[in-house]
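Listing S7. Sequence submitted for prediction.
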Amino acid sequence: MKIIATRATFPLFFILLALGLHAQTLRGTVRDASGGEVLAGADLLLTGQRDSIFRTAISDEKGAFLFEDLRPGYYTLKVNYGGFRPMVLREINIAGGKESVLDIAYNQNVDLPLLTIVNTSDRRPVQPLGEIPLTREQTLRFPATFFDPARLAMAYPGVMNNDDQANGMVIRGNSPASLRWRLEGVDIVNPNHLTNAGTFGDRPTAAAGGVLMFSAQLLDNSSLLTGSYPAGYGEAIGGVMDMNLRSGNNRQHEFTAQAGLIGLDLAAEGPLSQRENGSYLVNYRYSTVGLLGQMGVSFGDEDIRFQDLSFKLHFTGNRGGEWSLFGLGGLSKNIFTHKTDSAEVEAFKDFFDIDYSSKTGIIGISHQLPLSRRGWIKFTAAASGQSNERTSVSDAFEDFDSSDDLDESKISGAAMLSYRFGPQIRLMGGAMVNRQRYSANSTDRRMPLERIEHTFATAQPWLSLYWKSKSEKTLVNAGLHSLFFPYKDRSALEPRVSITQTLTPGHRLTLSGGLFSQVAPLWLSKDALDLLRSWQTGLRYSWNAENEWTLSGELFYQKTTETGVDAGFASSYSLLNESEYNIFERKMLVYDGLGRNAGIELNAERYLSDGWFLLLNTTLFKSEYRGSDEVWRSTRWDSRRIINLTAGKEWQRDKRPGQVRSFGLNGRIGLAGGLRAMPIDALASEAAGMTVFDAGEGFSVQQKDYFRLDIRIYWKRSLGDRRNSTFAMDFQNATMQENEAYRYYDPFTLQVETKKLLRLIPHISWRLEF
């Protein structure tokens, strides 16, 4: 079935294109991050990065501020309020034809970074150890992100991509399956298209895919938590991708259209009424990589398509309460047709017709209420589900036919309370309850019939206490998270603690540690399901200079004390090496295996200023596990090193008053050690007609080092108060490096082959905002 975009989609785009809009403005509100109340009388100082002109404003009784008649470009905003330390927001992009709206959560905690990229949805009292803030502006600026925050995160320390075709993240040596996705504070199913992209068995993964379903037009700033996260996060031992959706403009209608080789992306936002108490934001995206295929880009000769529709409605009440309704619907598919000409057959796959399709839906609602001037309470509920179907059939090799039908649904509800007892103490607490259903029905030659079904619930109550000293040099966050898993009569109590000490202005030292647990992959049978448990600790030093630079270094250690290994006989198998359904042969499991990850992260970042930015980091680590044979070995993810360099320069000039043109050149170099693989038993594979691993030595084969250069070249035009356009060219793997994906036995060539990662992926796009 072909997926066709309707002709009626957003017809107003082309009517309203000719209408003039308001001049560039920056407005918003200033709130206390602890209690959520507005702050009247805050002093704001706005400075353009291309001039020395200072613009000032004072927040009114509603905490609102306004800057008008701004030229397009990047700005820095400094906020001061009595009793609070100064806060600096950098990389604020003012675009022609768009009104920028900020909801600033002002934090009075000790020595927060003086160089803070604005995060309009974050009300945490202090940035947790191991948190990577991901901004919407960065996804539009960094090269070859394809506007996906997960791909953006791979430019930061501790994070490595396991395959160029997907956004799977290996975080500090943990499996991509150990990542959890959150949206607006609640857990959701895997929110990615093409969840089988880049996998060994062409089967869906639990936490990755070809591209994120949420367009960058809809996303607010998000965060990736990579370790030692606070008590409010749980049921994850590898990481948490915490995403938020931005609210639409509640004063004027605005539109964005983007067309490129990957597809079409349309967004609209504006007020729902003249009283400015509600807004809408809706985005539709249709994509096909057919144009890239015609340019010679190979995706395995597959017809790949996806589309999604997402939205957020936001309402404000008379007493400061806020309501939000959000949702997403996504479809994706890829089709491979067998080769009819025998001369074109190069691999065993060419004899098969392979059809993969996926459907995903998410709907949710949230309500937040202030509690006097000291706190707030928030309730969120969401239902999400995903269905994946795959068939592989051949007239010539019917014995090798296979099919997979995987369905997952999740209903999640969460409550969060924040209350400040005084200038030194703040209490946060809450609970999340999830009801999950998982069904897998698979047939293939290796496993003639396997059907797995789970329906269960988990509960996660938690409590955190924040305390700071009178000198404001010490901050302590102590908390307790609990995970209840009645499906297997299991539970876990997880204490967490973090201590931050300011040594001198700008220099901070943070020590954190805690216990973490996670439900094992749901593709296991009920008898094999249990809780994975780990202990994590970290020591971080950070220096925030008075200029645009920030430097940091972190030592981290993680020990997994209970993970699944083979029961009854000595084996090198461990659940820590799994990332997708039905790859490695396993017997009965017992949860007494061990794992350990240890390393150091070094990071230097210069925020965008004077037209250029830089991000340089390296991660040196070791990831090991112990199976039931009691031997310590490298995990599948033990690449040992990750090095990233991202830098860019933008040149800007005024063609005439009110019209600004910019040219930018950004690049990223990624270098990492190769992931590891099991050796393949060629003789056994030939006899079986499929890949048979020699599991005796575990993942003893290391692939070649990984290298990739990405480039982004763009031209931006801001035409007064009418519109803003960007023409960009992205080149993923610009040097056409042939990196290794995995090795497999091919029954057609009768030998072990090496699957290569994608070579050059060009992406040309044109973006219009009006």
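Caption to Listing S7: primary sequence and predicted structure tokens for the chain studied. The chain is about 5% helix and 55% strand. Residues 624 and 658 are 58 Å apart (CA to CA).
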